[in-house]
Amino acid sequence: MKKLYTAVVAATGGRDGHVKSSDGIIDLEMRKPAEMGGKSGYANPELLFAAAWGSCYLGALGSVGKRDGIDVSNATVNVYISFNEESSSSFVLSAELHVHIPNMELDKAQKMADAAHKGCPYSKATRGNIDVVVKAV
């Protein structure tokens, strides 16, 4: 495996803390969401994970489109990351990726969405670890 890029982010304070990337591009106060007893209006791990996965996933969808000769440059994905309670002391994530490819039949869009999910590095990292639904919409 050849390493192409390494992101470095320092985190302090956990869910009520701060994250800052080594290049200064990310510099955010973190708070638990209001639904978990925190404050709205701040970043949280699930938001950042959803943003990262969505961006990466669209890159994978672009590769699938290029391979198949289909322009997917106007495609969008809404990524839903849920923080779920398994028990009073155990929590897990789950995810839904709602993929929209304009002017494409849903069954064909679903096939492309599934192919992108197979190749996306974030999808690979979560495979078998969390419940994930990929749905063409």
UniProtKB/TrEMBL annotation:
**Superkingdom:** Bacteria
InterPro entries, A to Z: KH_dom-like_a/b, OHR, OsmC/Ohr_fam, OsmC/Ohrsf
The Gene Ontology biological process annotation of the record reads: response to oxidative stress
Q: Which family does it belong to?
A: Belongs to the OsmC/Ohr family.
User: Protein name, please?
Assistant: Peroxiredoxin, Ohr subfamily
Q: Which organism is it from?
A: Pseudopedobacter saltans (strain ATCC 51119 / DSM 12145 / JCM 21818 / CCUG 39354 / LMG 10337 / NBRC 100064 / NCIMB 13643) (Pedobacter saltans)
Question: What are the leading ranks of the lineage?
Answer: Bacteria, Pseudomonadati, Bacteroidota, Sphingobacteriia, Sphingobacteriales
